Amino acid sequence: MKLKKEQISNIIWIVAILVLLFTPIGFHAKVWVNRIISFTPNVIANEAQQKLEDYQFILEDMDGNAINFDNFSDEVLVVNFWATWCPPCVAEMPEMAALHNAYGDTVRFAFIANDKPEKVKRY
């Protein structure tokens, strides 16, 4: 029994979809697609400034030390909530690293993840 071209095409598409959904290749493909389709928003220079009065937000760093956000009340702080399993989050990491390299002396960065430390350290 010979397969028709349409059947072969359908089988190829099904295999490709399964590979993208259920293998690590799929995760990296999603990251790549998100990098391509994501955009960088324009910065508005004259945006209204708001001052937060309550900084009682305490988290642990990668070494298990308690970090109180009240310590950064007089500094510019960029807070990024992300996850290792989130393709858009992983896709934005090179841009966040570039921001850190450009503004690391004047701006503090806090990357908050609810993953295991050994997974987070890879990024």
From TrEMBL:
Domain Thioredoxin stretches: 46-123
GO MF: oxidoreductase activity
Subcellular localization(s) per the UniProt record: Cell envelope
UniProt GO BP: cytochrome complex assembly
Source species, domain of life: Eukaryota
Transmembrane segments: 12-33
Xref: InterPro entries: Redoxin, Thioredoxin-like_sf, Thioredoxin_CS, Thioredoxin_domain, Thioredoxin_ResA/DsbE_sf
Described purpose of this protein according to its UniProt entry: Thiol-specific peroxidase that catalyzes the reduction of hydrogen peroxide and organic hydroperoxides to water and alcohols, respectively. Plays a role in cell protection against oxidative stress by detoxifying peroxides and as sensor of hydrogen peroxide-mediated signaling events.
Family the UniProt entry places it in: Belongs to the peroxiredoxin family. Prx5 subfamily.
Protein's recorded name: Peroxiredoxin-5, mitochondrial
